Amino acid sequence: MGSYPSEFNPVTKSLDSKEVEHLNPEDFRAKAHQVVDFIADFYKNIENYPASSQVQPGYLRTRMPQTAPDKPESLDAILKDVENDIIPGITQWVHPNFYGYFPASISSAAFLGEMLCACFNANGFSWVASPALTELEMVVMDWFAVMLRLPKCFMFSGTGGGVVQATTSEAVLVTILGARDRVLSKIGHEHAGKLVVYGSDQAHSMYNKQCKIAGIHPQNIRSIPARLEDEFALSPDTLRKFIEADVEAGLIPLFLCLTVGTTSTTAVDNINDLADLANKYNIWVHVDAAYGGNACICPEYRHFLDGIEKVDSLSLSPHKWLLCYAELCCLYVKNPSCVTNSLRTNPEYLRYKYSETDSVVSYKDWQVGTSRRFSPLRLYFVLRSYGVESLQSHIRSHIQYAITFERLVKSDGRFELVVPRRFSLVCFRLKQLNGYDASYTELLNRKLLEQVNSTGHALLTHSVVGGIYLLRFVVGSTLTEERHVIKTWEVVKELTNAILTEV
């Protein structure tokens, strides 16, 4: 039998010298203060970093050791490497000149909520596993529903309910599963291959992905073309033709995904008319309002949710525009039992006094996985720290900044708006030059986008809709002010001058 090293204690199974303290309160206090100072300085100096990372693929592997350290390293050394090696490779989503995708907004309030989430490390998969986690989530989801003026059929205080998912992808998946099993329980699982789902070709790419995960045959996923003359919203007449053709072919219409604020152009599908059509065929209607739905807390934008009482489910993401940090999506379901019947698990080791009662929510049955973080704390802190009126002002200020950029684009005859602005996204491009074809125009716009992002000053993104290549400028970063928008336009103009000089 081998002998232990002299410094090893076989009883504690640890090194007697330099023993690591996992969570000594005073040691944690000192190091946490150091990390908070690091974070505060990062935000304070955020404009000194490029908005878009300027590194090349593989850069970090050349800077990092090939193996983890054998001995503990100091926090000073770790933070130094974060500053020198990791931050340069981060696309700064919190930068005031980040205008790409849809931003993941931030706030001190949400940060504090996330700190407590990590502190408690609660796992609220069932009520008994963490009663406060379950009940706070139910309360906050109803608070948010009231802000959105949702009907009682989506609230726990009514006949429905809501749940925090990490992303819209998960929200869409669980609703498709609920819709699928609701239908198959009546007609038999042998007919699963006949199920058909519908959505605009402007719906988020995650929609097709979740349909496939749910077992929908790829040939039965209808991606319905949206047209420029409809401002890329889904046409009820076009949808009707698809549904009628499928019914005639003996297929079974199952699910319709509508969008309030598509990724490419923030197109808004007409919920009222499309839901009326879908309801005639008993189709589950889900509304993906991940971005645009947040604006609906403002009365002047609430009309985008008109007809919401006719749909089965709605999801929106406060992490995109309501200051909550990433991975916080709110899903509302009119008939929660459709989802929970599909996803329920009840092993003996999770059964307890209240598990069989209808009055107790087990959120494990509202999601794909089992474990649940205390994520609602972020939304809870934001709603209490800001109040509804301040959150409305936040949305309105971003929309006003987008209007400023829109006016600047209109003032320059070399540019055009591709679609009318909605919310805080401006879709624009260089116009087609006389004597040059559309492909050359696309080349110039690609070059402009590449050069804007390569400056590090700002980050914009692009899309292609209806065969049109366009640039996307969306205001959503918490730290953005009007001066940032104006300066970014000046950068765009300067680079445009240089590009067109070479033509």
Q: What does this entry look like structurally?
A:
- The chain has about 500 residues and is α/β, with parallel strands linked by helices.
- Among the domains are: about 10-90, dopa decarboxylase, N-terminal domain; about 135-355, Aspartate Aminotransferase, domain 2.
- Helices cover about 40% and strands about 10% of the residues.
- The protein contains 13 helices and 13 strands.
- The strands form 3 sheets. A 7-stranded mixed beta sheet has the order 3-9-8-7-6-4-5, with helices on both faces.
- A hairpin with a 7-residue loop joins strand 10 (about 415) and strand 11 (about 425-430).
Average pLDDT reading: 93
DSSP helical segment count: 13
| Low-pLDDT sequence parts | none
Write the element-wise H/E pattern from the N-terminal end onward.
EEHHHHEHEHEHEHEEHEHHEEHEEH
Which structural class best describes the helix and strand composition? alpha/beta
Helical percentage: 25-40%
CATH topology of the domain at 134-354: Aspartate Aminotransferase, domain 2
GO molecular function: L-tryptophan decarboxylase activity; pyridoxal phosphate binding
Organism: Echinacea purpurea
Cofactor: pyridoxal 5'-phosphate
Modified residues (N6-(pyridoxal phosphate)lysine): 320
Features:
seven-stranded mixed sheet, 40% helix, dopa decarboxylase, N-terminal domain, Aspartate Aminotransferase, domain 2, 503 residues, 13 helices, alpha/beta, globular
Please sum up the structure shown.
This protein is of the alpha/beta class and 503 residues long. Helices cover 40% and strands 12% of the residues.
